[in-house]
Specification:
CATH topology of the domain at 57-407: Methylamine Dehydrogenase, Chain H
Helix content: 10-25%
CATH superfamily of the domain at 57-407: YVTN repeat-like/Quinoprotein amine dehydrogenase
Strand order of the largest sheet: 1-30-29-28
Number of helices: 7
GO molecular function: actin filament binding
Number of strands: 35
Protein name: Coronin
Structural class: alpha+beta
Keywords: Membrane, Repeat, Transmembrane, Transmembrane helix, WD repeat
Strand content: 25-35%
Oligomer: single chain
CATH architecture of the domain at 57-407: 7 Propeller
CATH class of the domain at 57-407: Mainly Beta
Family: Belongs to the WD repeat coronin family.
Pfam families: DUF1899 (PF08953), WD40 (PF00400), WD40_4 (PF16300)
Length: about 675
């Protein structure tokens, strides 16, 4: 027995076990693979961030549609040398003193060497900035310790401009940087080389506030959303947030470690985004909270370069663009409340380094093409590259989610109101140590006014009609009484709701016109006048029978189904019915003597064909009933004549046909 199992059964059992083991291994492998794929999908779902700006891409405008031959200044100063608004673009160009050029933003082609410019300063111009509330007003600062405000004509410069609208003199050294107040009109902040800042009322040219306390050179200044605070970066590697009304330092912290210039701007929810250098000249950015400026929330190193990184922030979309002078790349990120709070999107790279940079406002965007931002980049060859950033969308309609209301050109505060808040804040600070200056949120306007107006209209317009039911009188309470079937009396015993003196008129059936409107019978009518009319007997009103179904099925017999008019006829029956109909039509065309006879002449006492008594020709109906009877008589006569004429025409046609084919 053992030899039998060992010789024959053992190899089969072993093969079966091996097959089972291999199938089990395959099953385990498949399950492990599915679990790995599922876990990988979960991780990928966590990695992929949901955002409408995740696929923003840059599309430059062709050089044939750009400006060229711009001769930018050659001074070594960490500034943008450019600023742009929806009407004009300004460049600090080469020349004696400190000139800058103002060109319409839609100009195309080469710029002539003798193109008009603004002869602004006696020393090199360091920075220019357009007013946020007037596209024709621009401010400039220079090494000649002055800051000037200029008014550009609507059509641009036709000759050199030498006389400023306002000249602000108060600094002892060069004016490093300037910034307009984002909410108050005609309020300008300047920072000088003597480490002092002035808040100016540009309309009157007087200094509203002098802010001192910085131990070293001020590199950058930037206001927050409502202009109540501004942030500064200094050469002492400190970042300070100051109050706009009092100049008091609210928050202070240590910035980047590098000795090269660093810059700071306000972003979403009052956070501060800074760019700078490390000790090894590595460029980096960081996101900081105002309460703890020394410890950044997020910090990331980018590369090693000498160019200063300038951050541009779009407060409507939350996008940040990092542009370095002398670089060929522009990096852009999205700042939101999700960790890691600063999300990298993409990098746009060209072959030409940038010499000057201008960031366009939302009022200058092309919302029909889903353009989200636009950057003007002046290369070292003097060509102005227009870089448009788009959000890919399949629809050509206006995208309301991409374009919330942006800042308006109408200021929320005047310079006088801002000054009153400043004075009140200073008084409160000296008396009660409370900072309560007057602040206001900026006014906002739609990016595309036409699309916003169209969206405000209702999509479905409903035509209002008169309320017909409103004219009906309400039902009296004593008319309707609820009764059960058992309590309700029989229909024959129910009293009539109308009085017996005026019985209800009955419908009258007319042989030619069908049912005519109901009318009451006159008291004195001859019996012969209604000989051709049949009265419909009134139907006896019966109450609903609970034992009788509401719908009953009627079954047809075989004889009824086999009738000629039924739907289930054989082809032979249908042919026979058609032949019978043809014979009836031929018989109806045959004229009889009564039909061909002329109609009898009516006399005063003669009877009409309809059985009524006809009146004389001079008879005038006395009431509506007699008029209707006369009309019915005339109708009967006309029908007889029409039938007689039709038969005569057919007879003439038959004779013509027989005469035509008789030969």
């Amino acid at each position: 027995m053992r030899e039998h199992l060992r010789g024959r059964r053992h190899p089969q059992i072993l093969a079966y076990l091996l097959l089972t083991l291999s199938s089990f291994r395959f099953y385990l492998f498949r399950k492990l693979t599915e679990s790995c794929i599922f876990s990988l999908q979960i991780e990928m779902a966590q990695i992929v961030r949901q955002s409408k700006f995740r696929h923003v891409f840059c599309k430059p405008v062709k050089h044939e549609s750009c400006m060229s031959d711009i001769r930018v200044t050659e001074i070594t100063w960490d500034s943008l040398f450019c600023d742009v608004n929806p009407k004009f673009i300004a460049f600090i160009n080469r020349g004696a003193g400190g000139p800058f050029m103002v060109v319409p933003v839609n100009k195309i082609g080469r710029i002539d060497k003798d193109y008009p410019f603004v002869d602004a300063h006696k020393a090199p111009c360091l920075e220019v900035a357009w007013s946020p509330f007037n596209d024709n007003v621009i401010a400039s600062c220079s090494e000649d310790t002055t800051c000037k405000v200029w008014v550009i004509p609507d059509r641009g410069l036709s000759r050199n401009l030498t006389e400023p609208a306002v000249e602000l003199t108060g600094h002892q050294k060069r004016v490093n940087t300037i910034a307009w107040h984002p909410v108050a009109n005609n309020v300008l902040l300047t920072a000088g080389g003597e480490n002092v800042m002035f808040m100016w009322n540009v309309g009157t040219g007087e200094a509203l506030l002098e802010i001192s306390g910085h131990p070293d050179q001020i590199w950058s200044i930037n206001f927050n959303y409502d202009g109540s605070q501004f942030v500064t970066t200094c050469k002492d590697k400190k970042i300070r947030i100051l109050d706009s009304h009092t100049g008091e330092v609210l928050h202070e912290g240590t910035g980047h470690e590098g000795v090269k210039p660093q810059r700071a701007i306000f972003v979403k929810d009052g956070l501060v985004l800074t760019t700078g250098f490390t000790k090894r000249s590595e460029r980096l950015y960081s996101l900081r909270a105002p309460e703890n400026l020394s410890n950044p929330i997020v910090e990331e190193e980018l590369d090693t370069s000498n160019g200063v990184l300038f951050p541009f922030y779009d407060e409507d979309s939350g996008l940040v663009y990092l542009v370095g002078k002398g670089d060929c790349a522009i990096r852009y990120y999205e700042v939101n409340n999700e960790a890691p709070f600063v999300h990298y999107i993409n990098t746009y790279t060209t072959n030409e380094p940038q010499r000057a940079i201008g960031f366009q406002s939302k009022r200058g965007m092309s919302s029909e093409e889903n353009e989200i931002n636009r950057i003007y980049k002046l290369t070292t060859k003097g060509v102005v590259d227009i870089l448009q950033f788009f959000v890919p969308r399949k629809s050509d309609l206006f995208q309301h989610d991409l374009y919330p209301d942006t800042r308006s050109t109408i200021p929320a505060l005047t310079a006088e109101e801002f000054m009153e808040g400043m004075i009140q804040s200073l008084i409160n600070q000296k008396l009660t140590k409370i900072r309560s200056g007057k602040n206001a949120a900026p006014n906002r306007q739609p990016v595309n006014a036409a699309a916003a107006a169209a969206a405000a209209k209702p999509k479905v317009q409903v035509a209002k009609k008169a309320n017909i039911l409103s004219t009906l009188a309400p039902t009296a309470a004593d008319v309707v009484q609820s009764q059960s079937y058992a309590e309700r009396p029989p229909s024959s015993q129910q009293p009539s709701p109308r009085p017996s003196s005026s019985p209800r008129p009955r419908p009258v059936v007319d042989e030619d016109m069908g049912i005519v409107p109901m009318r009451e019978a006159p008291p004195s009518r001859p019996a012969s006048s209604r000989a051709s009319r049949t009265e419909i007997p009134p139907k006896e009103e019966k109450g609903p029978d609970p034992m009788k179904p509401k719908q009953a099925v009627t079954l047809k017999s075989r004889a009824a189904r086999d009738e000629p008019g039924s739907g289930s006829q054989t082809p032979g029956q249908r042919r026979a019915a058609a032949e019978l109909e043809r014979i009836k039509r031929d018989q109806s065309r045959t004229a009889d003597e009564d039909t061909l006879a002329p109609p009898p002449q009516p006399t005063r006492a003669s009877a009409s064909p309809r059985g009524s008594v006809s009146s004389a020709s001079d008879h005038v109906p006395q009431n509506m009933d007699e008029l209707l009877e006369d009309l019915m008589k005339m109708k009967a006569v006309l029908r007889q004549h029409e039938r007689r004429i039709r038969m005569l025409e057919e007879e003439i046609a038959d004779r013509n046909m027989s005469n035509a084919y008789s030969f």
